[in-house]
Each structure stands twice: as C-alpha cells, then as structure tokens.
From TrEMBL:
Keywords: ATP-binding, Cell membrane, Magnesium, Membrane, Metal-binding, Nucleotide-binding, Translocase, Transmembrane, Transmembrane helix. InterPro entries: ATPase_P-typ_cyto_dom_N, ATPase_P-typ_P_site, ATPase_P-typ_TM_dom_sf, ATPase_P-typ_transduc_dom_A_sf, ATPase_P-type_domA, Cation_Transport_ATPase, HAD-like_sf, HAD_sf. This is Heavy metal translocating P-type ATPase. The chain crosses the membrane at residues 59-77, 83-101, 287-305, 317-341, 621-639. Residues 166-267 form the P-type ATPase A domain. Pfam families: E1-E2_ATPase (PF00122), Hydrolase (PF00702). It is found in: Cell membrane. It is a multi-pass membrane protein. PANTHER family: CADMIUM_ZINC-TRANSPORTING ATPASE HMA1, CHLOROPLASTIC-RELATED, PROBABLE CADMIUM/ZINC-TRANSPORTING ATPASE HMA1. SUPFAM superfamilies: Calcium ATPase, transduction domain A, Calcium ATPase, transmembrane domain M, HAD-like.
C-alpha cells in the first residue's frame, strides 16, 4: 500500500484530486467513460466501474477490513466465543491499519508527527483496554478514507493520461511529392503537412491549408456543436474531424499542443496548495505535538489522583481522536478545488488553488484591447462613396475586393471577406501589383483599381480628406479606392468588439464597485471608441509592454489587487506582474498562456466576473468550514474533559465533522454554483 501524504493533508489533497478528476472527466465528453456502448448496457458500465474500483490495492484492503469487521460484529452479537470475534476484529486491525500505521511510522522517522499514526495508536489503545469494537470501527473508517483517496488518485492519473490519448498516436504526413506516410504524432515538426480524413482525430495543432468540414472540438473548447473549418482556420490536436478531408500545416510540436498544455495545467493544479492550506499544515504539526502532550496529561493526571487505568486510558484515547485537526485541515482545499473544477467545466482553467483564492480578492480588473475586448481581426465597417464617383457602394466594394484577392494583408482579407459575406460576385483581376506599406493595383474588367493608404492616394486638398479624418477620429483604419486614376471612395476598417464585452464590463463593475481599466498599445482614437462602446472610462493607450507593467504596478501600489485579462506576447510581462493574470485561450499567444494564472478557454468575457464571484463564494465557504470544524472540536473536547464522551460517539463526531466540511466544500461542484455566480456577474446580490 502506498504511503499517504503526512500531516493529514492527505484528506485535503484527496479531495483536490477527486474534484479535479470530476472536472477532467466532464471534459472528456464522448470518450470511453461515456461511450454509446456502455450507455446502452448499464450492467456493463457498472461492472467496468467496479473493476476499476477494486483494481486499487487500498480498496481491496479496506473492503477486507470492512468485511472482517461486519462478520466480527455479527459473531459478537450472537454470543460466539470471545476468541472468534476478537480474532476477526484483530484481523480487521491488520487489514485496514497496517497501511496508515506504516505511513505514520515513516513520517515519525522523518521527525514528523502524523495524525494517521495517532488514529492507529488510538485504535490500539482502545483494544488494549478491551474496547476492541470501537478501535475496529475507527480502523474501518480510516481505511475507507484511504481507499477513496487512492481510488481518486488513480482516477486522476487515468484521466490525465486520457487527455493525452485524445491526440492520436499516429498521423498521415504528406511529402512534397504528395505521397502519404503514417508517422508517430510525436515525430511531427512545425511546417509538416498532414492529411486528416473524415472521422479521424486531428494529429497536431495547426492551420487548415486545403479542404473544408466541421470539427468537434468540445474536448478543447467546450463548444456543444461542431465548428466549420476552412482554409486559414486553426485546428487542435485531439479534436474529431467530421465529413470533410483537411490538409493541415503543423504549427506546434506534440509537446506544446493545447491538449498538452491542458494536461500540464491539470497536473499543476492538482499538486498545488492554497496559502491558507499551507499555513494550516504548519499549525497542524505544532497542534499534533501539543495534542499528544495533552493526551498524556489527560491520561496521567487522573491516574495520579487515583482513577483507574482503564477509564483514564479510554478518556485519553477519546480525547486524542476528537481533538485531531482533520476537519480544520480539510476546511480549505475542497471549496477552492471544487471552484476550480466548476470553472473548468465552464471554460475557465484556473492553474492552482492559490489563483482561485486570489481571484476572489481582486479589486480592479484591467483589460487589454486587441484580441481581448475585441476579436483581434479587422472587419470592414464603412463603405463611403465620394461625390462624383459613378459607382454604388456595392460596386465600389466589389471592385476593391476583386483587386485585393491575391493580397495576404489582413486589411485586404477583411475587404474580400466583406464582399463574400455581402454575396457580391468578384471579377477576375489581371496585372496585379502590390507595394508593401502602400497598397495594391490591378485591372478588374476594363478598369484600373487601386486600393491603398490615404497618405499615398489622397492629397491634402482632396474632398475625401474630411471623410478620412472623421473615420480615423472614430478609431477606424482607412483605405482609399481609386478607379482609373480618380478617387472614388473610402473604406473604413476596425477591430470588432466581442459580443459579450459590454455585459462583462457591466458585471465586473457591479461586482467590484469600480469600472475596469483599459490598457492598450493601440492608438488613442481606437481605444477611446472601444471604451465608449463597452462602458470603460479609464483608458491608457499607446502603451509598450513595459508601460503596461508600470500601469499595473501603479494600480497595485495604490492598494488595488489587479486582475489583468490579455492575450498577446506584449501582455505577458503585465500578466506576470498582476495580482492575477488571465489569458484568452483561443486568441492568446503561447507566451501569454504560459504566463497567465488562468485561461478563458472559450474566450467568453462574461466568465471573468462569474469566476470572481465563484472564488468569493469559495472563500466564504472556507470561513464557514473553519467555524464548523472549530465548533465540533470545542464541543467534543469539552464533553470528554467535563463529562463522559463514549469512544464510538467521539469517533462519529470527529469523522462526521470531517465529512460535513468536505461535503460543504463540494457543493461548489454543482452546476447551480456557477449559475449563481453568473447571476452575480449581472449585478444580482451575492
């Protein structure tokens, strides 16, 4: 049997593991745990679950201890000879107690006093004074707790491996001559082109070169419906291709895929402890030593004044059990890890319990602009025909888009996309020419079409200058369209704000009592335009990366705990400097995702106020748990010292308080907890 983590932090860690296991299992939609075959055969599902459960050694030992205890209790009740039920109880001691006892001895060898060892010692002491039933009951309870922990640990390991297995082991790599070669997914390098046939899982993170189809990427983003993919769209390793064949250029090696990063986050979150938890563990070590000293005193003092040894030892053993700080230690981590699991289920990956704790203490939220509050891609917003041009707006857009078709410039793609969305037919262009930084020129039909910057194509005295100035003052980027050497129109392009940006800002303002701040490297006009649209008044524009860091530090020097939401490489230093850094999962750069403390996997901004509200509720539950645990310990200790507390009742009270605080924390796993946080983000009372 594997030794358990000392200082009874094992129960906290086991709760963490069980919670995160549940979160990971929920992310594995459609995988082996929810296969159609098992759903159609409940008996098979039950047998598979039982097989996994009893495959864990600790579960088998705990089951043996429980069976021996039950048989012993029956033999005891029916009046069989004492040696029969005593033997069964002692066998129960051996089956269920040797693991915790050995773990406690190993901890003692390292000069640490383990509560597990104290529990075993209490059980042995109970047997020494003839209370073998009470001691066996304590062993069964403790063995069962250890078995659940070991099973949860195994499930977590299996789930993490399951995440890794989402990405296929092999992929079809295309050579330069078009030939196909099946290779291991780990052999793919950036720049390789792979073929993903219908029904196959994508072998690597990359971008579609050819083909179209729908891809089920629920395991990565949580989206309930398949997402249409076309050339230029990003795809993720482990997602399931639908009906179309895709040629994908690999953009990340196997160890850096989104799946691999999620696995790393899960492992990191499972291994970390909140600051409050670490403080409790330090207190617990001293508390355990003090409890041993107090137990000796409770035994020795009455004995010195003439009490009989049996009653004194029984009282001392009961005292040691009820005074153990198990519930106090368990009070902190389950609520925080339950909140992490629930947030992960709704698209927010929080990397540790420390981060979840810090989210609730955030007092000011700062947003980056491009890719965070906006989609990060330009869109055509304005088509303005200049006086005297003999074309309509649709004709102007169609001619400009036809000329821009061969260009790969982001603004050119935005113009072409707008024409396609408007359903405009595009003529073939000829004699295409492009000058970087200036624009393009091509013959479309019988007309020469030029699309370029206002600085190049528009003179100061031209009547289109006023339109350009007005659009740029509104935060738009402009392009001039010239037909046959004459200025014909102005195109305005801008980054489109995310649909939920205004709701997110309103929710954060209601939650924190102060509107967020906008920190952006974009120009002041574009920043002001977006800020007005979403309801932000505090705007800092034109910032370089170091300027963003200074802005965050200035807010924090003023007493604010800053939660920064960003996506780009230029945001990474500020994400590291902030009280909590949160990155956009889809739009975020690799550096931002690695630096951030949390990731919004689905890029839903309304998740920001929701996860803050969820964290604050978790903190309130931690406080409530500590109060519950302290109350139980105080009442039970007082009962034992001032009256007579039966050992079985002491065991029940001690373990009952542990179960109560554990279950209280696990309430945050319920979907209702997130829904309540979502209501809070809209300004409803907490």
């Amino acid at each position: 049997m594997e030794s358990r983590i000392p200082h009874h932090s094992t129960d906290c860690v086991s709760a963490c593991i069980r919670i995160y296991d549940a979160a990971v299992a929920l992310r594995l939609q459609g995988e082996e745990h929810r296969s159609a075959e098992e759903s159609a055969d409940p008996a098979r599902t039950w047998r598979a679950g039982a097989a996994r459960f009893f495959a864990v050694g600790e579960v088998r030992w705990a089951t043996a201890a429980t069976v021996l205890f039950v048989i012993g209790a029956v033999m005891h009740l029916v009046g069989t000879p004492g040696w029969v039920w005593w033997g069964l109880y002692l066998a129960c001691y051996a089956a269920g107690g040797w693991g915790p006892g050995w773990a406690g001895v190993r901890a003692l060898a390292e000069r640490r006093l383990d509560v597990d060892l104290l529990m075993v010692a209490a059980a042995i002491g109970a047997a020494a004074i003839g209370q073998v039933f009470d001691g066996a009951l304590l062993i069964v309870i403790f063995a069962t707790s250890g078995a659940l922990e070991a099973y949860a640990t195994q499930r977590t390991a299996d789930s993490v491996r399951g995440l890794l297995h989402l990405a296929p082991d092999t992929a079809t790599r295309l050579a330069a001559d078009g030939s196909e070669h099946v290779v291991g997914a780990e052999q793919l390098v950036v720049g390789d082109v792979i073929l993903v046939r219908p029904g196959e899982r994508v072998g690597a993170d990359g971008r579609v070169l050819e083909g179209a189809g729908e891809v089920d990427q629920a395991t990565i983003t949580g989206e309930s419906l398949p997402v249409d993919k076309a050339p230029g769209d990003e795809v993720f390793a482990g997602t399931l291709n639908g009906t179309g064949a895709l040629r994908v250029r690999v953009e990340r090696p196997a160890g850096e895929t989104v799946v691999a990063r999620i696995v790393a986050m899960v492992q990191q979150a499972s291994a970390t402890k909140a600051r409050t938890q670490l403080f409790i563990e330090k207190i617990e070590q001293r508390y355990s030593v003090a409890m041993v000293a107090a137990t000796v005193t409770v035994f020795a003092v009455p004995l010195a004044f003439g009490a009989d040894a049996t009653s004194s030892l029984l009282r001392a053993m009961t005292f040691m059990i009820v005074a153990s700080p198990c519930a106090v230690v368990l009070a902190t981590m389950p609520p925080l890890l339950a909140a992490i699991a629930n947030a992960g289920r709704h698209g927010v990956l929080v990397k540790s319990a420390v981060v979840m704790e810090h989210l609730g203490t955030s007092t000011r939220v700062a947003f980056d602009k491009t890719g965070t509050l906006t989609e990060g891609h330009p869109h055509l917003t304005t088509v303005r025909v200049l006086p005297g041009a003999a074309v309509t707006g649709e004709e102007l857009l169609a001619l400009a888009a036809a000329a821009e078709q061969p260009s790969q410039h982001p603004l050119a793609r935005a113009v072409v996309d707008a024409a396609h969305q408007a359903g405009l037919p595009l003529q073939r262009q000829r004699e295409f020419g492009s000058v970087p930084g200036h624009g393009v020129r091509a013959r479309v039909g019988d007309r020469w079409v030029e699309v370029g910057s206002a600085a190049r194509l528009l003179a100061e005295e031209d009547h289109g200058r006023a339109a350009v100035t007005a659009l740029e003052a509104d935060g738009q980027t402009t392009a001039v369209v010239r037909l046959d050497g004459r200025n014909a129109g102005i195109l305005g392009l801008a980054d489109r704000r995310r649909p939920d940006a205004s709701h997110a800002v309103a929710g954060i303002t209601a939650l924190t009592g102060i509107a967020p701040v906008l920190l952006t490297g974009d120009n002041p006009h574009a920043a002001a335009r977006l800020a007005t649209e979403v309801g932000i008044t505090d705007v800092h524009a034109g910032l370089l990366p170091q300027d963003k860091v200074e802005a965050v530090n200035a807010l924090q020097r003023g007493g604010q705990n800053v939660l920064l939401v960003g996506d780009g490489v230029n945001d990474a230093p500020a994400l590291a400097a902030a009280h909590v850094g949160m990155a956009m999962g889809r739009a975020g750069s690799d550096l931002a995702l690695q630096t951030a403390d949390a990731v919004i996997a689905g890029d839903e901004l309304t998740a920001v106020p929701a996860v803050i509200a969820l964290s604050r509720r978790a903190r309130r539950i931690v406080v409530a748990n500590l109060a519950i645990a302290a109350t139980f310990i105080t009442v039970l200790v007082a009962w034992d010292l001032l009256g007579h507390l039966p050992l079985p009742l002491g065991v029940a009270g001690h373990e009952g308080s542990t179960i109560i605080v554990g279950l209280n924390g696990l309430r945050l796993l319920r979907p209702a907890a997130w829904h309540r946080a979502a209501l809070t983000r809209r300004g409803a009372p907490q």
